[in-house]
Amino acid sequence: MKPIRTLLIVLLSIEAACCASAAVPASADTLVTPIETVHNELRTLRDGLLDAVNKGDIEKQLGFLHTNVVITWHNAEVSRGREGVRDYYNRMVNGPKKIVESFRADVKVDELTILHGENTGISFGSSKEHFKMAGGSNFELDGRWTATLIKENGRWLIASLHVSTNIFDNPLLNLAKRSLYWASGGLLLVGLAVGWLIGRRRSGPGTTPR
Questions:
Q1: Does 100 map to a domain?
Q2: pLDDT value, residue 139
Q3: How many domains are there within the chain?
Q4: Which of 78, 113, 172, 180 could lock onto 123 through a cystine, CB 3.0 to 4.6 A?
Q5: Is residue 4 part of a domain?
Q6: Residue 70 DSSP SS3
Q7: Under the phi-then-psi rule, with left for phi > 0, alpha for psi from -120 to 50, and beta for the rest, what region is 56?
Q8: Which positions ≥6 away from 199 have C-beta within 8 Å?
Q9: Which of 165, 150, 154 shows the shortest CA–CA distance to 69?
Q10: pLDDT digits (tens, 9 = 90+) for 38-84
Q11: C-beta neighbour count of 61 within 10 angstroms
Q12: To which H or E segment does residue 166 belong?
């Protein structure tokens, strides 16, 4: 009988422990899994960086980038390190030969960041980018982006970023096409006018060109 009594005591002890645990309400911390914590940290990075971008605060933007970050921009130019990103930004937006007057973006993430271990992730998605150019024109680009993220000293940072747009269908290409059409039409009119003048000259005054 002793083994049976021992088993009953163990079972009763387990039941009592389970009941005691159920009686204590779970705290908010225990409801969040480690993976959810990671994705919440990544959302904080995304929201903070996007806020800095839309406010035009380059120094705050740099705080979300790794010191050795590599960024490939829409124009295929590459910036290395925070200083390289600052130089590119100031040249494009603040310099005496600036191209962009202001810029903002609406960013969407396609899915949760793909995690590789505890300290590395790859994120990707789409963006709608609003440009106001220094020359006064405005346009929007539908872009795509891919970012590599690493966690260093307890913080998630962007280690690399690649942005791109559709080279076959975008506002800049459409503007170039329209300019080409206008230029072609203008050249055609000039050619007709020159041909008419040459014909009159060869026919001589008072005669009708044949």
A1: yes
A2: 80
A3: 1
A4: 113
A5: no
A6: strand
A7: left
A8: 209
A9: 150
A10: 999 999 999 999 999 999 999 999 999 999 999 999 889 999 999 99
A11: 21
A12: none
Characterise 153 by phi-psi region: left (phi > 0), alpha (psi -120 to 50), beta (else). left
Report the CATH number that the domain containing residue 43 is assigned in CATH. Answer: 3.10.450.50
162 within domain boundaries: yes
- In this structure, the chain runs to a length of 210
User: Is 190 among the domain residues?
Assistant: no
Please answer whether residues 156 and 149 qualify as being in contact, where contact means their C-beta atoms are separated by less than 8 angstroms.
yes
The closest alpha carbon to 149, from 38, 17, 6, belongs to 38
Tell me which DSSP letter residue 169 carries.
S
Residue 210 neighbours by CB under 8 Å, 6+ apart: 203
Q: Residue type at 152? A: E
Domain that holds residue 93: 33-178
Q: Are strands 155-165 and 65-72 parallel, antiparallel or unpaired?
A: parallel
Residue type, 58: I
Q: Where are the alpha helices (DSSP H) in 34-144?
A: 34-54, 58-62, 81-89
Reply yes or no on whether the pLDDT at 13 is more than 80: no
